[in-house]
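[step 3/7] inverse_fold.run input=structure_tokens len=737
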């Protein structure tokens, strides 16, 4: 079957846009083909710094013929109805229609509309220009004389040529002829900007890839990445060193070159006195180069790996020398920043008030920077105050949380006071991605406790779903305080995420709270009560109970995301976190307090339980009981069966199955409650599983709606006890199935 080859060749495509642009091209073109009934076997898109390419394999030569029967009005219907039918069906007269008889409705007109399938090459000639004109570049430009009138094509950078061919593997493909903004499609592409800039005539995809390869262009970005990584590792190994892997940089560099050539440069050893992270950030940010380390010590080496886009006649000496000059200049700046940040500030006398307010020691450089941050009144958010005010809140909360997470309150408070102190440093000002990390370095240099220094760096964690959570208890206290302050603050000013927009990374903060509580099993962190306290303490104008419940719901949504990745369905999380859970079992007098670690553990255990036969059977029985109760409560009123069943009446009825269920409930319910209270989640499920035989037998042998009103009411009370027994674990009514 024929294949499509499409290439859009332009002046430049920024590396950060290439992957998405390739996927957008594939989706837009293939979706349009499918809409026209042109089903394909496979498609793949590619991007280089100068071109987007797409191959679509296994397309038919033409679309399927369509035969449609369109029913019209009855024979003898008013003329207006007949004319409307003819126009809609595209018929000239009723002579072109068919009359169909129906025994009940009589005779009516039917139009048989037959449309021949469109030639695929014609469809492509319509689809591709439309895709090009409406392509969703995040940033684009116009060029040429027509751009002054605003009528020319918008593209990421000037579009130079369009290659578009279609044909079977055994035939010479045809050029799909069309024109976009004066650029006519053809079968010509261009090779490497310097090594092979001339035109290249190609036929189909295999020929295209091979031709580009000969012209010093590697089309596949993943292959370019593999070449760079392999050559860099080999160069490092030959020098007795080891490549510092950097997937993000590798992706970016692969988007900067069409023909990757890996080289090695060096810088003076004196620069190795700078922290390795700062060296790496400097070389990465300014020169897009990789760094190397000594495999024996793990310390950085005074070498770096640049990736060139050409094969230089001197073997790359001039390229590495040029990169080396820039690297040395940038490292000289970094050395200055490193020295400056460790020295005293010149305006210490002006910082005394801030130091006294925050309890800082102006004899220490990092304390000076925190006092400076407060003195400058750097705003965190216009409605949430300054960074200094925020640090005061975080420090107080970290001290409060410390006993809950097993941390020293004094150390937690000290770490929180220094957590943002590196923000005004020279090094973080130049490389914001080093915040926290440089704070830890400076904290260690001024002799802070190891846990305090670790917390200064780790309080930002986890940054993403795959990032590790803080391990040290002091880090946990400060990380939770930082994230909870963020969430409570933005909830207080009603700056919540909407749709896909989350400018303050509140989803990340909520997920961070959830993961920390889960992984450290913080079953003493009663989140709802804590949030209500924080709203009342910090934002007294906010309705604390309403805001806390709303924020709890937001956190639970993040828990769903976390558990979904572990294979737990969202409805199970709803069931465990729902209003119906009797949390007073675990915390007397604190009904409905949400404890994240308990939600997570219970949801995981419940998910496993519902996969067993006992779990499936109990859920089905619960649903049956709940449906019966719902119907009967409509007659007798809400709560009519809330009292405990009369055991004497059960005994008098003489039904073994009814008595067995009453006994099973009396035994299983306290077992499940005690197991949850003891954090024995599997034990709670085992207690519920004990109900299965009695429940199955009850529904098999006992008539719930007995003619005797007393027996009916008593049996409905028994079903209500079954419903309440499951609520020791979860609100089964929220579980699908």
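[step 3/7] decode complete -> sequence:
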């Amino acid at each position: 079957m024929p294949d499509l080859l499409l290439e859009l060749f332009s002046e430049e495509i920024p590396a950060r846009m290439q992957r998405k642009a390739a996927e957008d091209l594939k989706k837009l073109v293939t979706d349009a083909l499918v809409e026209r009934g042109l089903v394909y076997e496979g498609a793949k898109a590619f991007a280089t710094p100068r071109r987007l390419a797409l191959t679509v394999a296994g397309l038919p030569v033409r679309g399927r013929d369509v035969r449609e029967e369109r029913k019209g009005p009855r024979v003898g219907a008013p003329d207006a109805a007949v004319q409307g039918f003819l126009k809609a069906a595209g018929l000239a007269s009723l002579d072109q229609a068919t009359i169909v008889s129906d025994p009940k409705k009589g005779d009516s007109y039917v139009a048989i509309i037959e449309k021949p399938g469109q030639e695929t090459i014609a469809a492509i000639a319509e689809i591709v220009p439309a895709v090009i004109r409406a392509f969703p570049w995040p940033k684009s430009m116009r060029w040429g004389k027509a751009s002054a009138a605003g009528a020319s094509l918008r593209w990421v950078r000037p579009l130079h040529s369009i290659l578009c061919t279609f044909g079977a593997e055994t035939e010479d493909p045809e050029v799909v002829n069309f024109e976009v903004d004066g650029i006519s499609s053809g079968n010509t592409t261009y090779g490497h900007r310097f090594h092979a800039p001339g035109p290249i005539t190609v036929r189909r995809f295999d020929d295209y890839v091979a031709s580009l390869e000969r012209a010093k262009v590697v089309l596949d970005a993943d292959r370019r990445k593999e070449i760079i990584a392999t050559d860099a590792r080999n160069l490092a190994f030959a020098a007795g060193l080891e490549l510092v892997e950097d997937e993000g940089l590798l992706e970016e560099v692969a988007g900067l070159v069409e023909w990757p050539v890996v080289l090695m440069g060096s810088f003076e050893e004196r620069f190795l006195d700078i922290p390795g992270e700062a060296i790496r950030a400097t070389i990465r940010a300014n020169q897009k180069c990789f760094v190397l380390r000594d495999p024996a010590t793990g310390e950085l080496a005074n070498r770096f790996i640049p990736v060139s886009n050409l094969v230089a006649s001197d073997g790359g000496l001039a390229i590495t020398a040029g990169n080396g000059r820039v690297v040395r200049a940038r490292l000289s700046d970094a050395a200055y920043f490193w020295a400056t940040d460790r020295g005293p500030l010149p305006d210490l006398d002006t910082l005394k008030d801030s130091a006294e307010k925050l309890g800082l020691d102006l004899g220490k450089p990092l304390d000076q920077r925190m006092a400076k941050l407060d003195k400058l009144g750097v705003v965190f958010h216009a409605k949430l105050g300054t960074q200094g005010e925020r640090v005061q809140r975080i420090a107080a909360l970290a001290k409060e949380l410390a006993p809950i997470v097993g941390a020293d309150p004094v150390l937690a408070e000290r770490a929180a006071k220094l957590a943002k102190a590196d923000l005004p440093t020279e090094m973080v000002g130049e490389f914001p991605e080093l915040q926290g990390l440089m704070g830890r370095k400076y904290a260690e240099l001024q002799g802070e406790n190891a846990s305090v220094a670790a917390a200064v760096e780790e309080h930002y964690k986890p940054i993403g779903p795959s990032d590790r959570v803080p391990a040290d208890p002091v880090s946990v206290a400060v990380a939770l305080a930082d994230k909870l302050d963020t969430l409570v603050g933005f909830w207080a000013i009603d700056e919540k995420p909407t749709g896909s927009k989350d400018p303050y990374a509140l989803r990340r903060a909520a997920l961070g709270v959830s993961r920390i509580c889960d992984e450290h099993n913080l079953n003493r962190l009663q989140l709802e009560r804590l949030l209500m306290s924080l709203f009342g303490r910090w934002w007294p104008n906010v309705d604390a109970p309403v805001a806390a419940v709303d924020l709890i719901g937001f956190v639970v949504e993040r828990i769903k995301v976390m558990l979904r990745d572990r294979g737990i369905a969202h409805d199970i999380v709803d069931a465990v976190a729902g209003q119906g859970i009797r949390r007073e079992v675990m915390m007397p007098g604190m009904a409905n307090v949400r404890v994240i670690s308990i939600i997570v553990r219970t949801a995981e255990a419940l998910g496993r339980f519902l996969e067993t036969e006992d779990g499936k059977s109990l859920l089905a029985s619960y649903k049956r009981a709940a449906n019966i109760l719902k119907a009967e409560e409509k007659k007798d009123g809400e709560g009519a069966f809330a009292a405990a069943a009369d055991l004497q009446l059960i005994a008098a009825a003489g039904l073994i199955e009814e008595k067995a269920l009453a006994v099973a409930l009396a035994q299983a319910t306290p077992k499940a409650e005690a197991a949850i209270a003891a954090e024995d989640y599997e034990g709670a499920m085992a207690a519920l599983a004990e109900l299965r035989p009695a429940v199955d037998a009850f529904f098999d042998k006992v008539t719930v709606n007995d003619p005797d009103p007393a027996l009916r009411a008593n049996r409905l009370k028994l079903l209500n006890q079954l419903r309440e027994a499951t609520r020791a674990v979860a609100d089964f009514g929220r579980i699908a199935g």
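[step 4/7] annotate
The chain has five domains: 3-61+119-214, 68-115, 221-342, 361-565, 610-734.
The chain is about 50% helix and 10% strand.
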